[in-house]
Write a structure and sequence with these properties.
The complex is a heterodimer. By secondary structure, chain A is mainly alpha-helical. Chain A is about 70% helix and about 0% strand. Chain B has 2 domains: about 230 residues, Rossmann fold; about 240 residues, Rossmann fold (3-Layer(aba) Sandwich). The two termini of chain B are about 40 Å apart. Classes of the chains: A mainly alpha, B alpha/beta.
Chain lengths: ~300, ~500
Amino acid sequence: MEIITIIIPLLAAAVQSGTPILYATLGEIITEKSGVLNLGVEGAMIIGALAGFIVSRYTGSPVLGFFAAGIAGSFATSIHGVVCLWFQGNQVVSGLALTILGAGLANYLGTSYVGLSAPGFSPVAVPLLSSIPVLGPIFFNHDILVYISYCIPPVMCLFFTSTRFGLGLRAAGEYPAAATAAGLNVLAYRWFGILVGGFLMGLGGAYLSLAYTHLWTTNLTGGRGWIAVALVIFAFWRPGRAVLGAYLFGSVMALQLRLQALGTQLPSSILLMLPYVLTVFVLVMSSWRKKTNEEPAALGVNVEPAD
Amino acid sequence: MSSREPLIRLENISKSFGKVQANRNVTLEIIEGKILALLGENGAGKSTLMSILAGQMLPDAGTIYLGGKPVQFSTTEKAISAGIGMVYQHFKLVDAMSVAENVFLGQKSGFWLKKKKMARVVEQLAGQYGMKVDPGARISDLSMGERQQVEILKLLHRKSTVLIFDEPTAVLTPNEAENLFATMKIMVKKGKGIVFISHKLEEVMTVADNIAILRRGEIVDKVAASDVSSTAELAERMVGREVLLQVDKEPVEPRQIVLRLKKLSGPGLKKINLELRQGEILALVGVAGNGQKPLVEAICGLSKPPPDTVTILGMEWRKFFRKAEWDNALSYIPEDRQGLATCQGLDLLDNFLLTTRGGFTKGPWLQKELAREKASYLIKEFDIRPPDPAIFAWQLSGGNLQKMVLAREFFRKPRLIVAEQPTQGLDIAATEDVWNLLLKAREQAGILLVTGDLNEAFVLSDRIGVMYNGKIVETFDTDNKEKLDRIPQMMAGLAVA
């Protein structure tokens, strides 16, 4: 019985630490599905985190903060859109620039808030569901943002496979020429992918500043954006598998914290490294299994605007 | 001919790219229930004309009439909604999606995709036109013929009334081509108008109702297929015989054999025998796609021929390519001068060094100064403009780029030259320069000239070989009048031995 009392809180913590990564991964999936590689996830996340924190702090409404974070995320990735969709800039370079810009901007603007707190979200147990043994405490005793994140993957799946717009978005990422020949506006779909993706990345950031902690610190995202980029490959661009991947990372992060708290012999820097070691491992494994033909064929390939 | 309004009428369409006039005063009618074949060599302007019709570019002059009313197709969407559909040579299909998804891509059909209904619609549509495809199959699992059917289904589902097929049989097996023709016949029976672009004469004779022949951007002939007596007649109309240019050709005594092909077979090639001596130009003529490409690739080392079939400068292919020196050996002048022959983003000096670097190396170092001197000299000698070795390849016009390639290759003093369509797309002046250069090079080398331009073959060559269906039908001296007259027959596969 004792094992359960350790494992259940650990898994619940895994869901919680996995949630920001899940938001960001889903954001990157929709962006990449439209054919745009956005390596600026980290930047969009941290800008979202700060925007959410500030808005929540001044309005006293975490809900407003949450939406502000999404909008700030879209705003951040729109820079990527301007560079890549309007000016046909290099997507890799532009994404890296967005990461650096985001981190710099958030740290600069956030200096005066370091250590301050803002109203955030607190856990709300879902009636009935939370009383299910084992699953209840793991999945249904969280804040509302976690519950929202449960809804996104199925909606996204449905969007990709069963709607006209999802079909168009996938075509824009697979073979833009075919989409154009079919009379679709590829750039519009890519804008959609970038902006919705940025919105989700911003939400991922907000989760960190409004739910995971209610504090602002520098470097709050701590590389989670990069983990999301790697997870997209692990997930084979499928929202469902992204959930699995995000919680896998979440559990490693949660475990790492527990182990530190328990005071193991292992130096904490090794433990802190664990999620990133897992990232490398996951990338190697997914490339090795060579199921990479799931990748959108035109990912990272710019499209000339029609006149 | 019925007095009904044609579906589409192109009137006096002209289009030029820089100095090259791709289309000149083209007037064409696409009629309901008829297959119009647009026949012409590569570069005759077929594709440009159809791109204009499909809304990919606007003509410089001329009007398109849709059911009698003038229209402007400034975008592909406009052409699509006017009922014009194009089956491209390179299919515009999303490999990772299913047949049904591709058919429905871009269709205004409500927010949700109804998978079952989509599959049913696709299946029914295919059935109506004698096609058979699995609507749920992924495109990447389909054969070329099946993919083409999906392209056609896309257009039919959009209710296109005019369907343009751009060399549709190039990627098909003979059997699949038969099926395609059957489908085309059903389509015209159901009132569609079809444009069939091809340079395969038999096909045109089989399926077309009307034939328009395009040469150098102009319509040179319009005939009803029933009025054409033979494919040879078509071939002659297609290639033309007029002589535009004449250059002086000094006789050179042929010397030792530099290239020998013995029963060379392979994909697209059937038992080719050929001998080429230093001091002569052998022109290989034929309609494109009859084995010229694989033949050139086998000789120039781009694909591996079977052992002991290709002998270059007295050495078996493998031995030759293992030991080949950078000079006094083989030079290849590819058709694709911007892709295979040069690197667009490198300057002329680096492009010059691409194949001549063997002569400018000292240990691991390139002797750039020496090379620059040499390149500058050649640029002056070959009159390449602008005369600056630091200029990038992409900044040169086609003619100057070709001269630069020739300058580089001749600098290697090759004993065997393979030149592929060396004057395609060049203006008259540049063509004349290139011809003179080739004739001069002949003094030192044996030249295999692969060309689609009969006039070029007549002017330059000492001997002519005609290719058809992967074989060399016949080889003869260029002054053999009687044989020359029969070239069109041979090109059409009506060889009389």
